Amino acid sequence: MVFVAGGLIPARFLTLISHLTIVIVILWSRDENVKACLPLEYTAEDYSKKDVEVQTGLGIAIMFIGIELLTFLMGITMFLPSVAMISIASHSSASVLLAYFVFDEWDCNLYWWVFAFCSVPPAIIDATAAIGILVLKKS
């Protein structure tokens, strides 16, 4: 158990930080991705709507990663191998996909697929585990 936890803890931390970093980078440089969602001729209102949509999605992702980082760093879910494996798989997948999202200027509607499969499940699983540990006193 100690050997497994010794490898999972740094891997989980690094994937969480890489996902957070790439989401912040996308938030700062979202202009081209927002334009990729729009037709060739668009109005300022169309651009504004899509920009708010992308900002909202990225903000929620930052919130989910922040909650997961908080429970991890507080030690609540740090030593749960199943939670760690799901977190590592999801956040490393998200990091790779979002790097392509930035570099290839993907359509911003594709972000929601990455969000749904790589940000939501680990956040729900981590929150469920944290509630189980803190409220229900399960280990």
| Residue fraction in strands | under 5%
**Mean pLDDT across all residues, rounded?**
93
What is the ordering of alpha helices and beta strands? HHHHHH
Give the tally of structural domains.
Answer: 1
Give the overall silhouette: elongated
Point out poorly predicted stretches.
none
Largest sheet: none
Question: Strand tally, please?
Answer: 0
How many individual helices? 6
The end-to-end distance, rounded to whole angstroms, is 15 Å
What would you report as the Rg, rounded to the nearest angstrom?
17 Å
Tell me the helix content: over 70%
Structural category is mainly alpha
What distinguishing features does this structure have?
139 residues, mainly alpha, elongated
Describe this structure in words.
The protein is mainly alpha-helical. It has one domain. The protein has helices at residues 2-28, 31-37, 44-73, 81-103, 109-118, 120-134.
Please summarize what this structure is.
This protein is mainly α and 139 residues long. It has helices spanning 2-28, 31-37, 44-73, 81-103, 109-118, 120-134.
